Amino acid sequence: MGWYFYLGLVLVSGYALTDAFTSNWQQKVFHETKVSSFEMMQGTNAVTFAVSVIFALPSIPEILEFYVAHPLIISHSLMVGLTAGFGNLYMYSFFALQYLHKYFGFICFFFFEKKKKKGQILIYFTVENFGAVKLATVMTTRMVVSVLLSIIYYGHPVSMTGVLGMFITFGGLFYGILFK
Fold this sequence. Notes:
The protein is mostly helical. The protein has 2 domains: 35-130, no CATH class; 131-180. 86% of the residues lie in helices and 0% in strands. The chain contains 8 helices and no strands. Helix 1 (3-33) runs antiparallel to helix 7 (132-154) and helix 4 (72-84) packs across helix 5. 13% of the residues are buried.
């Protein structure tokens, strides 16, 4: 197995650990401090922004060079930044530098961010009112449906090992939810 396998394993494991920690931590904060969903979203986004800036700091010269070479990106970044909040402007600019070099990508990203904010509110509302276990149930169900739809819609071939892996993974997730 190549190093991509191990990188994928680390990334998936990191996602699972942080995802499990986050909803439980948010539930604890909701119950101990009585913050609202909007306050939780603001705090989470502030921490996300700070971490993004820290990771992007080494790339500031490249970002500035990109802005000089492509001045139209300034208006695109402002459009995205104003809809998402000024604090996220730098993060989106860095993201744009890495992945979204075409105008169409900015339009898609703009609409994605609007949907993402509604999704964040629903996630915080679910944790606040129903708890982390219910959120995990919803998110796991969404993940299973998403994987199955992707396999069906795009016609991805799935080997027996892949099917077994999905049963073990999703079975373990559902077992953890049902018997927690």
